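Tokens in:
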């Protein structure tokens, strides 16, 4: 299903956190569910790399992190592609 069709719908993903960036309690982390990866944007900090996470949130097709993206020095794929805006998260180490 295309990202545009998922926009504003809550979806979930479970996988391994493969990389993360955070500053001042905000950040982004990349989750690999075995079929691909998805960047998740969080206003509640980020789990540690290597953790298994279950995340719920809404999909945004093109997302601008504004100054936060500049501060975190995130990869271009985070600020110019599909991301999930985190609404709920569970972590299993």
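Residues out:
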């Amino acid at each position: 299903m295309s990202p545009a069709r998922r926009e504003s719908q809550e979806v979930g993903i479970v996988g391994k956190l493969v990389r993360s960036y955070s500053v001042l309690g905000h950040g982004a982390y990349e989750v690999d569910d075995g079929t691909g990866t998805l960047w998740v944007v969080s206003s509640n900090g980020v789990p540690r790399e290597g953790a298994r996470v279950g995340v719920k949130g809404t999909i945004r097709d093109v997302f601008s992190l504004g100054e936060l993206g500049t501060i975190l020095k995130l990869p271009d794929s985070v600020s110019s592609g599909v991301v999930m805006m985190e609404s709920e998260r569970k972590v299993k180490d």
